[in-house]
Structures are given as structure tokens and as C-alpha cells.
């Protein structure tokens, strides 16, 4: 699953650093938050009845530039975090999340930006009889992403510091099971942090002169797969396959540009066409429409050692059935280099804020 793989990816960096350089330095943080659920979809308006509250607990491994990629990103932290959120609505219940995260720093390390990805457990998901109002969470297990932007002051007294700012917490199952309207909570958070062994932390290793780096164009061939639904409550899960081919151009150690094409085979799309033709015989669907799609896309790959964050923006150039999703699509996720030529990724393909599928991918780079 996407979020489990995210944990594996990030902790592989954590473990490799620990093994290579011996002693490591860690910190903890704890924040209380108060916020509101954003009405990104009018279908969840009935679920916004209060101001959610909760906790964010973080464990961080600090970096000091022992690896070159740490210097390029201004010495980020890698860590794990736990969230508890009371949604302040009996139909939504409470959510518990476990994440891998990275902390990035700006303005003399006074501004911290965190991105966390993980899994969340929903205490009260949709049930056709017992909880039919909860159209946000169709399953107990959810994928979750959270963003945090904090003013952070370390080691004010004996390793103890403070932090405060804004957070955004997203829950969704990426159409793994319907319904899946999802929620986004915008919060104000206030907390404390504590650095272990703060008296003995080393100095940051200077970055040195910027090294110019590039590579010639490479070609990639990718197989993506997974399961999703028709987007209709009660729908079964159906498999899909996507074949992608694209070229990439490495600009520097951080950035790689991508452009290519892909063909989509979706059993859920095929079943939806049949469903619409039978359920609405006087509608626009005859049942003979082609369920295949062909997309073209451009993208960017942001590289952290062997881990990369990939973002794609695509357009369905061949799209014979236009009543399922929008013609523009995007893909966001994590990619992990396995060998010099082989890589794996876990991504979410969406149409604006509407997620269609979680994609498990294996790729080969020539």
C-alpha cells in the first residue's frame, strides 16, 4: 500500500545513515491542535459540525551533512509521527495516524516545513445501516498526508524549545473502497520540542561549492497496477493495468524532468459503462463505449538519495467515454531506486481532488 511503502522508503534512508556514520542525534516534539474541516466537497457539508482537536507527536533523526544530499536540502530531519484527531462529529468519530515524515528548514532554521505520509485508522467508517451519513470514509484503513509549517525555536532551555504554526491533515482511501469523499482539516498548532544529547551535537558540515551535474536523456518503461471501484457506493473492487513509456532528463542532483505517454486498461471503467447503460437506458451511455484511455504527461522528479518524489500532469488524448472522470489528471507519489536500472513506486492518480487509484509500479530505466 502507498503509505506502508512510504514508511519503508523513508526509513531506509534513516537506517543507512545510522549504519554508515555511527552515532546519531534525535529530538521529540508534541503539539496540540485546534481547527476546522474544509468544505472541499459540498457532499460532506453535513459532517462539518464542530472544530476538530488533537495531538501530533514526532520523533526526528537530525542530519548534519554527513551525506551530500543532506547538504543540498539544508540538513533536513527524517522521522516518524503519530496523530490523534477528534473530528467533533459522531458520524466521523476519531482518527489515529502513523506517518513517516521529513522536516525542511528555512530562515536560519527558524521556519520548519514538514510533510508526512502514512496510514490512518478511522474509528467510525461508513456502514449502510449503522453509519450511512459518513460518506467521507468508506473503510477503516485510510491513507493520510499531513503538512505542517511552524515557527520553531530549539534549545531555549536545556534542550527544550517551542514551535507553533499551521497544519493540514488529509484522510482518503483513494477510491480503494466507496464512499470516498475524504476530509481536509486545517489547524492551528502549538507545541514543544526537546533535543536529546543537545550538549554534544556536532556542527553542520559546510556545503562547499555547488557541483554541476547532468545526465543524457534516458528512457523508462513502467507497469502500473492496483484495484479500485466504480465510484459508486457498494461497488466491488476491480483490477487495472497501465503501461507507461517516458523519457527523462536529469538537470542536476535534485531535479529530473519527464515526458511520455501511457495507456490505461480499467475493469472499473468497463463495469461503470455497463452499469450506466442498464441503470439509465434513456441516458447517454449505450454500453458499447471503449473503456480504454490513452494519456500524455509531463512530470518532475525530486531526488533525495535513492528516494524521489514524483509529480505528473497528464491529459487523456484518447478518451471515448467522458462521463467517468475529468480529462486532465495528476499523479503524485514516491519512487525508490532498487538497482541502477530498476525502480519501484507507489503513487496516487487523481483528477483535481478526486482520487481514482493507488498505483503500484515497477519500472526499468535504460
Q: Write down the CATH class of the largest domain.
A: Mainly Beta
Question: What percent of residues adopt helix (DSSP H or I)?
Answer: 10-25%
Tally of domains = 2
- Protein structure class: mainly beta
The arrangement of helices and strands along the chain is: HEEHEEEEEEEEEHEEEEE
Strand order of the largest sheet: 1-2-3-4-5-6-7-8
Mean pLDDT over the residues: 90
Q: Give the CA-CA distance, first to last residue.
A: 27 Å
The tally of strands reads 16
Number of helices: 3
The CATH architecture name of the largest domain reads Beta Barrel
Strand content: over 45%
Cα Rg = 22 Å
Give the uncertain stretches in residue-range form: 1-21
CATH-defined fold name of the largest domain: Porin
Principal-axis shape equals flat
Biggest β-sheet description = 8 strands, antiparallel, barrel
Molecular structure report:
By secondary structure, the chain is mainly β. The protein folds into 2 domains: 2-200, Porin (Beta Barrel); 218-365, Porin (Beta Barrel). Helices cover 10% and strands 52% of the residues. The protein has helices at residues 2-21, 68-72, 267-279, and strands at residues 26-37, 53-61, 77-86, 94-106, 111-122, 141-157, 160-172, 183-195, 218-228, 238-250, 255-266, 293-304, 307-318, 328-337, 342-351, 354-365. Strands 1-2-3-4-5-6-7-8 form an 8-stranded antiparallel β-barrel. The longest helix is centred in the first third of the chain and has 20 residues, at 2-21. It is flat and about 75 Å long. The model is unreliable at 1-21 (pLDDT under 50).
Amino acid at each position: 500500500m502507498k503509505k506502508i511503502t512510504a514508511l519503508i522508503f523513508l526509513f531506509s534512508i534513516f537506517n543507512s545513515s545510522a549504519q554508515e556514520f555511527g552515532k546519531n542525534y534525535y529530538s521529540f516534539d508534541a503539539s496540540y491542535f485546534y481547527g476546522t474541516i474544509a468544505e472541499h466537497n459540498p457532499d460532506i457539508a453535513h459532517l462539518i459540525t464542530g472544530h476538530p482537536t488533537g495531538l501530533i507527536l514526532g520523533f526526528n533523526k537530525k542530519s548534519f551533512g554527513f551525506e551530500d544530499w543532506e547538504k543540498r536540502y539544508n540538513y533536513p530531519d527524517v522521522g516518524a509521527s503519530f496523530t490523534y484527531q477528534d473530528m467533533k462529529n459522531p458520524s466521523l468519530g476519531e482518527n489515529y495516524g502513523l506517518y513517516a515524515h521529513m522536516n525542511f528548514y528555512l530562515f536560519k532554521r527558524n521556519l520548519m516545513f514538514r510533510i508526512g505520509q502514512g496510514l490512518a485508522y478511522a474509528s467510525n467508517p461508513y456502514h449502510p445501516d449503522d453509519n450511512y451519513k459518513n460518506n467521507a470514509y468508506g473503510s477503516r484503513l485510510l491513507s493520510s498526508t499531513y503538512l505542517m509549517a511552524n515557527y520553531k525555536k530549539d534549545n531555549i532551555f536545556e534542550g527544550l524549545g517551542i514551535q507553533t504554526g499551521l497544519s493540514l491533515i488529509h484522510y482518503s482511501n483513494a477510491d480503494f473502497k466507496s464512499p470516498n469523499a475524504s476530509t481536509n482539516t486545517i489547524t492551528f498548532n502549538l507545541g514543544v520540542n526537546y533535543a536529546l544529547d543537545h550538549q554534544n551535537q556536532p556542527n553542520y558540515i559546510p556545503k562547499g561549492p555547488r557541483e554541476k551535474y547532468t545526465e543524457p536523456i534516458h528512457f523508462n518503461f513502467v507497469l502500473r497496477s492496483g484495484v479500485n471501484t466504480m465510484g459508486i457506493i457498494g461497488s466491488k473492487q476491480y483490477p487495472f493495468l497501465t503501461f507507461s513509456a517516458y523519457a527523462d532528463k536529469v538537470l542536476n542532483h535534485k531535479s529530473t524532468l519527464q515526458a511520455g505517454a501511457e495507456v490505461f486498461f480499467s475493469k472499473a471503467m468497463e463495469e461503470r459503462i455497463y452499469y450506466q447503460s442498464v441503470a439509465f437506458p434513456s441516458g447517454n451511455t449505450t454500453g458499447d463505449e471503449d473503456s480504454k484511455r490513452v494519456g500524455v504527461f509531463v512530470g518532475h522528479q525530486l531526488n533525495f538519495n535513492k528516494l524521489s518524489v514524483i509529480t505528473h500532469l497528464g491529459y487523456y488524448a484518447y478518451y471515448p467515454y467522458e462521463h467517468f472522470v475529468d480529462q486532465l489528471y495528476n499523479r503524485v507519489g514516491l519512487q525508490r531506486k532498487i538497482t541502477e536500472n530498476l525502480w519501484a513506486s507507489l503513487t496516487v492518480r487523481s483528477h483535481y481532488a478526486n482520487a481514482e487509484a493507488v498505483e503500484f509500479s515497477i519500472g526499468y530505466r535504460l
